[in-house]
Amino acid sequence: MFSVNGLLFIKLDYVLRQIRSPSSITKPPLVNCAQGSPSLSCLVVESDGGCYSAMPPTAMRLEASPCNNNNNNNNNHASGAELELLAKLEEANRLFESDAKSLNSLSGNSASGHSRKSSDTSQISLASGTSSTQDRIEDGGEEDLWSVWGGIVNNWEVNWKKYNQQVRELVQKGIPLHFRGIVWQLLCSATDAPEKKLYADYIKTKSPCEKVIRRDIARTYPEHDFFKEKDGLGQESLFNVIKAYSLHDREVGYCQGSGFIVGLLLMQMPEEEAFAVLVKIMQDYRMRDMFKPTMAELGVCMFQLESLVSEHLPDLNQHFQSQNFHTSMYASSWFLTLFTTALSLPLACRIMDVFLSEGMEIIFKVALSMLMLGKADLMCLDMEGMLKFFQKDLPARAEADPEGLMQSAYNIKYNSKKMKKLEKEYYAIKSKEQEEMTELKRLRTENKQLRHRCEMLEEESKALADRLVRGQVSRAEEEETTFVVQRELDALRHTHLETTHHLALANEKIRSLSLMMEESHTSRQSSIEEISLKQEQLQQREEMIECLQEELVKVRLREAENDALTRELRTRIHELEEDKKTLRETTPDNSVAHLQEELIAVKLREAEANLSLKDLRQRVAELSNQWQRHLQQDHKQESAPSSDALSTPKKLLFWENRHNETQRVEEELMTTRLREMETLTEVKELRLKVMELETQVQVSTNQLRRQDEEIKKQKDLLEKGELRDRDAAARLLDEHRRYKDLETKMQEELMNARIRDAEKTQAVVELTQKISQLELKNEEIATEGELRSHSVDDNERIRELQDKVADLQAEFPTPIASPDTEPWKWLDLIKQFIIIPSEDTTKTESSGTLKVIVLKSLSAFDFCSSRGVVGPEGLGQEKLLEILQVLA
Description:
With 888 residues, the protein is mainly alpha-helical. It has helices at 12-20, 80-98, 100-109, 120-128, 140-154, 156-162, 164-173, 177-187, 195-204, 210-217, 233-248, 258-266, 271-284, 287-290, 296-312, 314-322, 328-337, 345-358, 361-373, 375-378, 383-400, 402-411, 416-519, 524-586, 592-639, 649-789, 794-811, 826-833, 848-866, 877-887.
């Protein structure tokens, strides 16, 4: 009877109404209509008092027609057959409600055009899922809810467009469990999604995220029966859907947290439909941007939630800031998993219902509602305690009253324009931070380059210092070598002077000997003596020539040494010139005026060197001229030989040979002297070059010294800049302190001003109370006078007043200004309930009026005290009794 194909849904409430109504039902036949069609079976009820049409149970409504309604009061009790039929109907209804398969077929067949596969996944998920409406399945209102949802689902497009607000309100109250899977698809427009056709291909394709997905599946709903079995049906379904989406959207791929959303969907529908709904959630509900690698949307949500918390819960936001407790520490999982990890599955399903209907707005509202729920405890906890509270205590409190939580969330106002503005502000802040980070990276790069340049300059300065030291050492060695050469030159000069002196003496002796030879030609004896003397002189000359030859050898050796030294000096000069070139290339430009001064000094040294070189050249020229004159004189002497020499040819031949040898020695000596002079000239030139190099070294030294001074100046400027920065930072801190002090003073002044306003308000209230007391006394006196002047029956007056009070209570069940909204106007509230006699009342009033006043005053006081209303001075029952005593 209760199979899936021939399900007979019986609307018990209508039958109960007809049985309990005055009109009776005669043989209500059950007709199974439209079998094989997507709609359900129908109930046809015929009655004498009303006409009913056959309709599906999901859209069943009682339509009373204007038939005969005359016998409404004929039968007051149902017959035994009718009661038996009622019992059978109740039993059938109970069996139907307890049959999960029939409910599943109801939810599947009620949606025309949206057929669902009867897979094992959907069966298990439907059996394992829970809902807040399932706990009330026994209630008759649940069947009405199913009827409404069946009609909505059957004609979804028309109902959604025409009754959008009513459908949203129904979604907020909760979608029934067996309608939830199809309604979720309808809400996100995933029933005919093209992604379903791609799902089979995605399952067959390999994904690069498979290992990560396998690793995280075991941590998704580990305590749920459907997912806790390793490599079971639930885990495989979860793996397939997540892998399919990682292939469908390769930019997002797989991100932790999406598995919980997929698991919640698989509890309500098969894999293909869960995949289609997941794609819609990602694309149309801002979740795709939230799961991107940058997670930019999550940052926007955190910024918006923090702004909402500062607006609705400023004390809690200030406490979070004081504890350095960021919004992402407790709310990131709420947005990434849509509360599936923080709350139980029934409440998470409720949130998912509204999320698919209204979007991300409900997540912000539920988050604020949960913060309001735990505000009192959070204000007393530190960071670690708040983390534990968000993990354990707050979800338990939310589970204790889910309806209150959702209702509190619905009552929170959500401004979409403000949220868009906050989103723009967040992106502006992020772009500014990105620019600051870029500038910071650029500054760090420049700082690194400057440090590298400083290190290079330090290395160059060290190399220049080493070169300078080496140059000074080599210059000292050169000076020492020059000093040794100068000493040797001085010795050569001294030897040259002695040789010149000996040569002059020899020339004088030669002249004297020639005179003697001319005088001794007269006699042979005299000539022999002269020859002997000449032989002795020749021997002396030979000895002198030998000495001169030895000295010539020494001079040549010295000349060779001087040549070697000259080559060494030239090599050194070449090295110094290369150093000079490198120094010119490396040394930076300095002051032009200083360089001009150095250039003038160098030119002066060069002029002095040129003058000394000119003097030396003149001396060399003079020596050359003297030498030429000497050669000419010797040539003349050789051209005019004596007449005596012709008589003695042998002697003359011997004398010519001796004379030629002497002449050769003298020529060599003169040539040696000339070479010596040339060597002196070269030495002078080398000294000039050494002087130039020294000048250049001095210039380079000055440049290095100025460069060191400039580096020192730059370092001093850098230190001064750092000092200024530190002073500025210190001043900034002082300004911050002063600002905080001023802000504290302003807050204190503001609090004092508020206290003064409160005191003034209290004084005004006291004066108002005094005026009211005086007015009450005046009215009391007037009432006493009127009571004394009139004698009317008290009982009748009390009865009239009681009737009037009843009418007033029926007309005004609650005061217009309730103590909940305006607690400071409690006295006015009492005045509304107190009936004060006016002047034009009849003279039949009696003391019953006072009793009514007391009774109504006490009831008003009880009404105020039940709502926790306290007066401006903390007035309680004693003050009210005083007022009543005055009235009495």
